[in-house]
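pls design
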């Protein structure tokens, strides 16, 4: 349960970060990646809401808990929002790698300790998708 209530605002921040890309980056590969992040995580947020409701829990809020692995601080988000061009691209990828790694850590904990099949299935899909995106971003950073 904790996994779901933590993953919702975690995903909300990733979507917020992804929405910054089209107006700040000229890198088409990064723009496409940000769209993929948003298209993957928005439906997962709906899935989390549905699962929580099935357990009789309230709809989660997008309220950030900065104790979560990989969550960006307000200062980090402000720095990202102020950047543009290649500086933005590099900062965004570095932050999103950190953000994804935090999500993977939480998902791996759920896989090891969770007892709900739907929640564990979601955790596995998060690990798989976000690890692929981390690999892609590391490749892009090494080429820049």
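designed seq:
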């Amino acid at each position: 349960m904790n996994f779901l209530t933590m993953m919702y605002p975690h995903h909300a921040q990733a979507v917020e970060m992804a929405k910054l890309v089209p107006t700040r980056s000229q890198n088409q590969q990064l723009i496409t990646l940000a769209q993929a992040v948003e298209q993957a995580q928005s439906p997962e947020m709906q899935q989390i809401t549905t699962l929580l409701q099935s357990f009789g829990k309230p709809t989660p809020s997008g309220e950030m808990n900065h104790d979560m692995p990989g969550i960006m601080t307000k200062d980090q988000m402000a720095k990202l929002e102020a950047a543009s061009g290649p500086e933005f691209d590099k900062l965004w990828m570095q932050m999103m790698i950190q953000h994804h790694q935090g999500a993977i850590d939480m998902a791996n904990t759920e896989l090891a300790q969770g007892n709900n099949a739907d929640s564990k299935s979601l955790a596995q899909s998060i690990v798989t998708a976000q690890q692929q995106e981390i690999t892609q971003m590391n490749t892009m950073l090494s080429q820049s």
